[in-house]
Amino acid sequence: MLGIILTGHGSFATGLYEAVVQIMGKQAQFTAINFPDGMSSEVLEQQLTDALKKCDKGDGVIFFTDILGGSPFRLSAMLSYQFNNVEVISGTNLPVLLEMLLQRDVLDAESFRLRALDIAKSSITSLWDENCKKTIDKKEYSDGI
Q: A Pfam family this protein belongs to (predicted)?
């Protein structure tokens, strides 16, 4: 099973972590590392390194980060070059995280990354767009086609 490490600015990581636990319950090899205001990059790097060693049971680890280019992303990326089977995904949201937690037993790190990006593309929508889909679906069926 792939390990999962959430990281991001402020309480981003623990906020998502708590939401996952509320919805799915506690998960093995799953942790959150915040980067609060005032924390040094050196401290964050050490915490991420410790989490990586704790979460990796041989199949690899996926870092889920908040924003591309931020310190949590950059330090996770640096670690991905130092360890095998480590992937870094940026722009994390709850729908992607939930779906991928369900798939981490059956995918390797690279396949996991590719699947997560596919899911991310469809996880952002709006009420208007969803209502339009329903209207289109109803019209197709009402015409008997």
A: EIIA-man
Angle 37-42-46 from CA coordinates, rounded to 5°: 105
**Stated pTM of the model:** 0.85
Terminal-residue alpha carbon distance, the chain: 45
Stretch 87-111: mean pLDDT: 92
**Rounded Cα gap, residues 78 and 81, in angstroms:** 5
Listed by start position, the domains of the chain span 3-142
User: Active-site residue 63, yes or no?
Assistant: no
Helix, strand, coil share of the chain (percent; to 5)? 55, 15, 30
User: What is the CATH T-level fold of the domain 3-142, as seen in this structure?
Assistant: Rossmann fold (3.40.50)
Q: Are strands 86-89 and 3-9 parallel, antiparallel or unpaired?
A: unpaired
How many helices (H) and strands (E) are present in the chain, helices listed first? 6, 4
Residue 90 contacts residue 14 (beta carbons within 8 Å): no
Active-site entry in 1, 8, 9, 142: 9
